[in-house]
Amino acid sequence: MRGRFQDVKECILAPSEHDERRSGGTRAAKASAPSELRRTLSARHLTMIAVGGSIGTGLFVASGATIATAGPGGALLGYVLIGVMVYFLMTSLGELAAAMPVSGSFSTYGARYVEDGFGFALGWNYWYNWAVTVAVDLVAAQLVMAYWFPDVPGFYWSALFLAITFGLNAMSARGFGEAEFWFALIKVVAVLGFVAMGVMMLLGIIRGGETGGVANWTVGDAPFAGGFAALIGVAMVVGFSFQGTELIGIAAGESKDPARNLPRAVRQVFWRILLFYVMAILVIGLLIPYTDPHLLRNDVEDISVSPFALIFERAGLLGAASVMNAVVLTSVLSAGNSGMYAATRMLYSLAREGKAPRIFGRISSHGVPLWALLATTVVAALCFFTFIFSPNAVYIWLLNTSGMTGFIAWLGIAISHYRFRRGYVKQGHSLADLPYVSPFFPFGPIFAFVLCLVITLGQNYQAFLQDRIDWGGVVATYVGIPLFLLIWLGYRLARGSRFISYRDMRFPEPRARSEYLDSALRGEPAAGEVR
User: Fold this and answer.
1) How far is Cα 296 from Cα 69, in angstroms, rounded to an integer?
2) How many whole angstroms from its chain centre is CA 214?
3) What is the pTM of this model?
4) CA dihedral in degrees (421, 423, 428, 430; nearest 10)?
5) In this model, does residue 26 exceed pLDDT 50?
6) Residue 342: strand, helix, or coil
7) pLDDT (0 to 100) of residue 110
8) N or C, which end of the chain has less CB nearby within 10 Å?
């Protein structure tokens, strides 16, 4: 019979064995090369990762197009609806991550509480999603830099920013956290400044708001233009804008005191979403009529037509386009930095669980999975296709190939949390023993799952309403779904995995979780699991 520690390690630490080996270990552990990640991300890092993940280029660039499409009321409703969905997802992820803070996050939870192949497919799907997203952001950086340096070949900028992103992630998890903290802070200051100035314009304190106000909500078909179809279209765009909020789940494996800090970050997400997105959209809708042709433009390379830039210019702020260009560049680099981190940790986690080549599970002396980082960097180098093709074409192509994968990860979070909670309660455990309890179960994960599924399946529904179906566009949009299902099915056939019943689920001992983690990470006997 195996010893208690072996049982413990398999049931709980197998997915979380990437956690830092804390001080107090054995001499052998100290003498050996580092093999675990380190818990160096503080509460402020987690908070800004959550906030930064919810503020993307979609807010600064595409928000105008959403108002032009659905009207000010439709756009506001779309952001509120998706914001609530994301908040439910974050509370679900918070419950899972606080109980089991592992870098594998969605992959680990899916494997433990749904089905091993489901977790395998989620992990590879998420790694691909963020690795390609880094390439997308590097191409976007080319388009943004062309505003200031139109004669400099774009791939030079991609090479520079790829080197910076690689360097930040190669230093340590703390290096990533510090960079993301300051990137996110710049975005937060920009949005707060925009909202404050917009309110002062509406109140007449600053010039430029004379033609704004409630009257813009009565122009044409406002406040709701385009009907239900327009609202669904806006929801899809908004959903892409919010992708990245789930990053704190990935960061949980390297955070200090995750049982306390993760719930705190999750609780703050809703208010950040309310302030940064809903208030910004409300201000834009009140100051600019939805019929303004400038709002239809959402090209990342033409930041002068961003609704933020338009309102700054109306307030008399000279150089508004340059200011917004700098903010968008910061947002792009932030997304690339986060994407590199998330993809690297997911590949590392897959390797440690035997679901990826073992070399990607190796750790550098700085506590960084360097080989996993190098593999992600190779995929991010797809940005250099702009040397052959136009940056715009490469940007759209890469964006289409990765668009669906983020929504699949969200669906995985909702399913995993629902089954985790059901299994936890069915086995007779008390919710009071969990570090954080999602207050909206079961409505929260069910609502998030249904709405996310509608958005996922409706990505390109317009294609099926035309006289001739654009099958090329349909394939580019939906290819992520069959690929995910094929990976899942292939794993099931190869490994013979099956869905995990509620009675077979295994959970950590809640009252001894802190002692359990500390002792197990030191290689000492610890309390067993609860069945």
Assistant:
1) 8
2) 34
3) 0.81
4) -20
5) no
6) helix
7) 93
8) N
Helix ranges (H only) for 353-390 are 370-380
3-class secondary-structure state, position 249:
helix
Q: Provide, rounded to the nearest whole percent, the portion of the chain with pLDDT above 70.
A: 80
Which pLDDT value is given to residue 516?
A: 37
Q: In terms of C-beta density within 10 A (0-12 exposed, 13-18 middle, 19 or more buried), how is residue 199 classed?
A: middle
* Residue 530 β-bridge partners: 507
For residue 355, report the phi and psi dihedrals to the nearest 5 degrees.
-110, 10
Instruction: Quote the CA–CA distance of 128 and 401 in Å, as a whole number.
Output: 10
How far is Cα 81 from Cα 529, in angstroms, rounded to an integer?
Answer: 39
Tell me, what's the pLDDT at 432?
Answer: 87
Q: Which of 500, 418, 427 is nearest to 93 (CA)?
A: 418
User: Tokens representing 107?
Assistant: 């992959």
Those residues with Cβ within 8 angstroms of residue 160's Cβ, 6 or more apart along the chain or in another chain:
none
What is the DSSP code (8-state) at residue 463? Answer: G
The pair phi, psi for residue 41, each rounded to 5°, is -85, 125
Q: What is the pLDDT, as a whole number, of residue 6?
A: 38
Return the closest-CA partner of residue 9 out of 531, 356, 516, 530.
516
Which pLDDT score, from 0 to 100, does residue 296 have? 67
